[in-house]
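Researcher: Go.
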Amino acid sequence: MTKPAHALDFERPIIALESKIAELKELSGGARVDFSDEIQKLEKKAKRLQAEIFSDLSPWQTVQLARHPNRPYTLDYLGRLFTDFFELEGDRRFAADRAIVAGFARFDGEPVLVMGHQKGRGTKENMLRNFGMPRPEGYRKARRLFDLAERFRRPVLIFIDTPGAYPGIGAEERGQAEAIATNLEVMSSLSVPSISVVIGEGASGGALGLGVTNRILMLQYAWYNVISPESCSSILYRDSTQGKKSAEALKLTAKDLAGFGITDEIVAEPEGGAHRDHDLVAENVRVAIRRHLADLKKLSPDQLVVDRYKKFRAMGVFTAEE
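Model: Structure:
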């Protein structure tokens, strides 16, 4: 278990109990006093409290958990799920965008194209990764690699985790909207299997620019929406601090999206969230990807395009009675 160095407000009672358990275990080491009974009682209490808290998280708490700084990022999954990763950089037009990591690798021994948004840990790395917010060159790099995947018949596996595409003036001047729109077009017509996994936060076109895939999987405490709660509250209430209120209305959790038929599977996280056990959540993701990839490989190239079209065409369809 990875002990969180950063605790969210609703995690603090659990962290306090775990700290007390750790202290008792340290005192028990080599001491004559046996605290095993007390430790056992506290461990049961901590487990019960954790189950109670995480059984009924609010949408806003889910948003906070998806942004946990110790949560595994794309590179953490790359190191655990793939072998022979060879990173490809640059859009061949302007620059290298390190907010998106991409390249060829092997998944279960099979050659695939893998890519994903990458946030940083610490100020220096976050500056390098631009806090996981891609610029146009990042999306154009992705488009270049989609073309390669199509040419070499490689399945496309994508990890989504971004607060949104970078909204700076330079990014807009270089065609941010056009770069994302082109990706939507290219991804929709890929004749190879494609799977995306929302591993943290998936906001706006910045997420959708890598998300037009045959299958969309989401981690249990991830979120995916057209806009972040803070941006939504800035528009609706002229107050960015009303994110909690917006999160309730946006229906952005994995459970909500499964109900709408947008996400194809909710991947279970370890007790207390993905940040507590990177290895376990990566294994859960491996099993889910393996199963969906096996199903998609049964489809012909034309069937894959039709399958993807039908999936997205069905989103947002409703009937109204007069």
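Model: Strands lie at 83-87, 100-107, 110-117, 156-162, 194-203, 215-219, 223-225, 265-267.
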